[in-house]
Amino acid sequence: MRTEQLEYNAAVTRLGSLRRAAEELRLSQPALSETVRNLERELGVDLLERKRSGATMSASGRELLPHIIGVLDAVDRLRSAAGEQHRISRMVRVGTVNAATVPLLIPAVREFRAAHPVTQVEVVGAQQTDIHRTLLEGGFDLGLVNHLEGDDEPAELESTELLRGRPVVCVRPDSPLARAPSVSVDDLLGVPLIGMRSGYVMHRYVHRLLAGRGLSFAYSTNGAEMGKLMVAEGLGATVLPDFSVIGDPLERRGALTHRPISGDTTRVLLMLQRRRAESVPRAARDLHEVFVRTARTLCARPEAH
């Protein structure tokens, strides 16, 4: 068994495709496929399920993935201890629902990269259900997802609360809704509403808030970042967690502001999730710690309260 066999299998699992893994590793697809098959024959299990849509981890592969990662991490530690100057670069993949991308994720990634200059961080926007699935399959190392307080957390994932906020109406400062200290449901129904697409927590929240009272989104989009840009361009208002707006560059430049929703006591939680595994890559552990530390700093700011 060779270390590169484990590296190649981890790459196929992470990218979900033999073709994409071959491109990243700069190998021919047949050569990569044969290397993975040789490892499967040596182990006596099928690590991957090969379909027309791509290769995904099999049930046996999921059981063995923590051990594969553990071996690769141990090899890295050995090379580092031996004083190797050209240590193999690792990639840490983060799935995010695009809430708090700027106020939390950007400073966390910046701090992490300062300590891990050869480790690439890949940030992938996705819906919560896709993030959960990809975490379990090994394609993501960490996931940032929103929960409404009281939502069940997946037992197979380890969840850490990073931020706790409330839903707010995000508007331009020159919007009529910005003139009052809070926004009522009736007020919200009187403006073009920019909604998150089905599958996002804030989509579910808005439907629950308005309880069928003539709800008709003027626009819908994937994620908070595009929603904030649309608001800044004067297309309407959107409803987001306050931690997704406070500290955003658009808010700092005066292009956005936010108001609480009258009478609403809902709390939104930003959760950091990862697989429950005996062995976790060191880089992923370090980035997890940086996220937690950055969140504590944000929570300590006066505007966060």
Report the average pLDDT across residues. Answer: 83
Q: Which structural category fits the helices and strands?
A: alpha/beta
Order of helices and strands: HHHEEHEHEHEEEHEHEHEHEEH
If strands are numbered along the chain, what order do they take across the biggest sheet?
Answer: 4-3-5-12-6
List keywords for this structure.
43% helix; 5-stranded mixed sheet; 11 helices; alpha/beta; 305 residues
What does this protein structure show overall?
- The protein has 305 residues and is α/β, with parallel strands linked by helices.
- The chain is built from 11 helices and 12 strands.
- The chain has helices at residues 3-15, 18-25, 29-43, 59-81, 101-115, 128-137, 185-189, 201-210, 224-232, 249-252, 282-299; strands spanning 48-51, 54-57, 91-96, 120-125, 142-148, 157-165, 167-171, 193-196, 219-221, 237-241, 257-260, 268-275.
- The strands form 3 sheets. Strands 4-3-5-12-6 form a 5-stranded mixed β-sheet, with helices on both faces. A 5-stranded mixed β-sheet has the order 9-8-10-7-11.
- Helix 5 (101-115) links the parallel strand 3 (91-96) and strand 4 (120-125).
- Helix 1 (3-15) crosses helix 2 (18-25) and helix 1 (3-15) crosses helix 4 (59-81).
- The longest helix is centred in the first third of the chain and has 23 residues, at 59-81.
- The protein is elongated and about 70 Å long.
- The model is unreliable at 84-88 (pLDDT under 50).
